[in-house]
Amino acid sequence: FKSHLTNNVRAMSALPVGHPANKLTVKKLISQEKLAGKVVFVRCDLNVPLAKDGSRVITDDTRIKEAIPTLKLLKEANAKIVVCTHLGKPKKGIEEGLRVDPVATRLGDLLGSPVIKSNDVIGD
């Protein structure tokens, strides 16, 4: 896979700071670590534009498509993937129009598997 995400995203884990695995790309991490069954937290910029008519239809899914090679690598390694992202900048708590439902649906379509999303995660 050739993707700016696959080549530039740094692997993150619960390993101590300075541990060699913290400096690996996802591709190298997969080749050196056994990820089957392990939870891998991936922060992705999936803040895609939505139709301005209130329909919440994604008008450009490029950012989601760019994340797919990295997520597929992790999926093929049988990792349990947790993706962290956002839509827009909520001003006060939860804003219904900024929920990531359309992103989760499109991500599932592109990955070929269902994506379960949490409804109650917000904060710093």
* CATH T-level fold name of the domain at 35-111: Rossmann fold
Could you state the CATH homologous superfamily of the domain at 35-111?
Phosphoglycerate kinase, N-terminal domain
DSSP strand tally: 2
Helix content: 25-40%
Q: Kindly state the mean pLDDT as a whole number?
A: 80
Helix/strand structural class: alpha+beta
Number of helices: 4
Low-pLDDT segments, ≥5 res: 1-13
CATH architecture tag of the domain at 35-111: 3-Layer(aba) Sandwich
Overall 3D form: elongated
Question: If you compute it from the alpha carbons, what radius of gyration comes out, rounded to the nearest whole angstrom?
Answer: 15 Å
What order do the helices and strands follow?
Answer: HHEHEH
Q: Give the biggest sheet.
A: 2 strands, parallel
Tell me what the structure shows.
With 124 residues, the chain is α+β, with helices and mostly antiparallel strands. The chain has a domain of 77 residues: Rossmann fold (3-Layer(aba) Sandwich). It contains four helices and two strands. The protein has a two-stranded parallel ribbon with strand order 1-2. Strand 1, helix 3 and strand 2 form a beta-alpha-beta unit. Helix 3 packs across helix 4. The longest helix is centred in the middle third of the chain and has 15 residues.
